Amino acid sequence: MVGFAAAGTVEYKLPVRILAVDTTTARGSLAVVTDQGVAAESRSTTQEGHSRWLLAAVADSLEKLGLEARDLDGFAVTVGPGSFTGLRVGMSSVQGLALGAGAPCVGVSSLDLLGRAGAGGAPTVQALVDAQRGEVFGGVYDGGGRPAGEPRVGTVESVLAELEGEAAFVGDGALRYRAEIEALVGGACFPEVDLFLAASLGRVALEALRAGRGCAPGDLRPLYLRAPHIRKPRS
Questions:
Q1: 176 vs 71: CA distance, rounded Å
Q2: Contact 209, 74 (CB under 8 A)
Q3: 125 secondary structure, DSSP code
Q4: Which of 63, 69, 87, 127 is the most exposed, having the fewest neighbouring CB atoms within 10 Å of its CB?
Q5: Which residues pair with 152 in a beta bridge?
Q6: 112 touches 43 (CB < 8 A)
Q7: Consecutive H or E run containing 179
Q8: Domains of the chain
Q9: CA distances from 160 to 12, 24, 64, 165, 216 (A)
Q10: CA neighbor of 11 nearest in space, from 215, 228, 227
Q11: Which residues pair with 10 in a beta bridge?
Q12: pLDDT tens across 112-142, in order?
């Protein structure tokens, strides 16, 4: 089992069971990932918030595997960008579970996961997450899915302004704005990738923990890219 060392570092044995959670978009998912693959997975598509299903789904998945949270060797969560509410639900849930289990965490950008998923589709991979209000969160990656620029937020036109050559577009933002993208970018392609990210997140986290790149739950930090949109209450 794992435990936290002094000065915020993490000591652990080789991780074999990781709980991964993604709630950054309406496509929420969780997965228990081991060295042998995905042991359990739950998916939800909701516009009402992920708080209603997430913890119940965690409990159900662990029960079916005969596990408790303290039996897990690590936790992973997508840190954004995405829905502010969904992001907070996912991060706070994972932090609470990890603290109780005394286990390390791994935080991964949803854009980075999409970039990896689109690897091999074209010399450039453009990950796009729907940011609502006519905007997208965007990240650009090379053909191998490695970051090739800083993440951005803005209209599709502004995010793609510097993109050149053939590119593969992935993410719910790519699906929503496909017609606009095709008008802006010659040679755009849209490979089919899984937009429920928990399983791929778990695999990335397993690699990270093996390499000693875990962190304490309180060290997780969200990737917002823009300030929250707060509506004033009606008088």
A1: 40
A2: yes
A3: E
A4: 63
A5: 138
A6: no
A7: helix 178-184
A8: 3-109+195-219 (3.30.420.40), 119-189 (3.30.420.40)
A9: 42, 22, 44, 11, 36
A10: 215
A11: 4
A12: 999 999 999 999 999 999 999 999 999 999 9
Residue 156 binned pLDDT confidence (cut-offs 50, 70, 90): very high
Helix (H) or strand (E) holding 235: none
Name 138's bridge partners. 128, 152
Q: What is the pTM of this model?
A: 0.89
d(CA 130, CA 141): 18
Q: What is the mean pLDDT of residues 171-179?
A: 98
Q: Residue 231: which residues within 8 A CB-CB, separation 6 or more?
A: none
Q: Strands (DSSP E) along 55-143, which ranges?
A: 74-78, 105-108, 124-132, 135-142
How many CA atoms lie less than 13 Å away from 233 in the CB half-sphere? 1
Q: Among residues 164, 213, 199, 173, which one has the least CA distance to residue 15?
A: 213
The one-letter amino acid code at 215 reads: C
CA dist 116 and 145 (Å) reads 4
Contact between 225 and 84 under an 8 Å Cβ cutoff? The reply is: no
Size of the chain in residues: 235
